[in-house]
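B., you asked whether I could sanity-check this one before it goes into the benchmark set. Here's the sequence:
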Amino acid sequence: MGAIFIHETAVVDPDVEIGSGSKIWHFSHVMSHCRIGKKCILGQNVFLGGTVEIGSGVKIQNNVSVYSGVKIEDDVFLGPSMVFTNVDAPRSFIEQKNYTKTLVKKGASIGANATIVCGNTIGTYAFIGAGSVVTRDVPDFAFMYGVPAKQQGWLSRAGARLYFEDGSTDSCEKTGEKYELRDQKVSLVPQ
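And here's what the prediction gave me:
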């Protein structure tokens, strides 16, 4: 699979699991008890808080902080300078360690400078546009953008727009995969 690469300026604390083929670049900091899957890329100045779980094939661009309480599944893309929160009502004079959980499901993409408010789930293969602020759960395959983020449509696994004008199915123009819309939920039709 390949060796692990850790740039000489990166700090990786003890008791961290890093999968083969992963790369950690300049000035990044990975705190103790983090788990990073195989073939992940952590760009420059990435911070992973203690107990963070990162799946395999994840790409985290420059200047992203993933705080305790956040879990990232496989094949997720986190754009430059996007932000997670992990406390519902932060106060500087109160120490709070009961972090509100946030889940980013398989294949989701979050654009540059987006903010994900804690306590929400980003669905499988969902796409969050740059600069958006997510304040609620995001359905699988949803295309969201704005402040606050609102659903603007649906996208396939490959990122192509899906249109359900007939109310039931559409195919991805890039892969030919079929998708079905039922009860405002999109799913991939088994081939």
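One thing to flag: The CA atoms of residues 101 and 170 lie 33 Å apart. Otherwise nothing jumped out at me.
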